[in-house]
Hints:
With 99 residues, the chain is an alpha+beta fold. The protein is built from 3 helices and 8 strands, in the order ββββαβαβαββ.
Amino acid sequence: MTDVYVKVMQHGRQLLVAACDAEILGKRLQEGEIIFEVRERFYKGSLMRIEEAMMLIRDATIVNLIGSNIVKNAVKAGLVHPEAILLISGVPHAQIVKL
Length: 99
């Protein structure tokens, strides 16, 4: 069982879901000029199984994902195209925006 942190935020009609693999919460990643901080205030919501997180991600209008497990599952579900993944220090990051 893989756990991820998921935070759900409502902004008007937009539903934002931020999810990260549990083991990278609080980490600072750097790839050249890119510095990415997996901040608790943005990502730390509920700790849940990845299957539960995927149900929330499917309903969201904006999604921010960081971590091998959560991104891999989003690709497997057809929600993220593999070419849309950015690697930061070898850690996959993806965003979804539904218009």
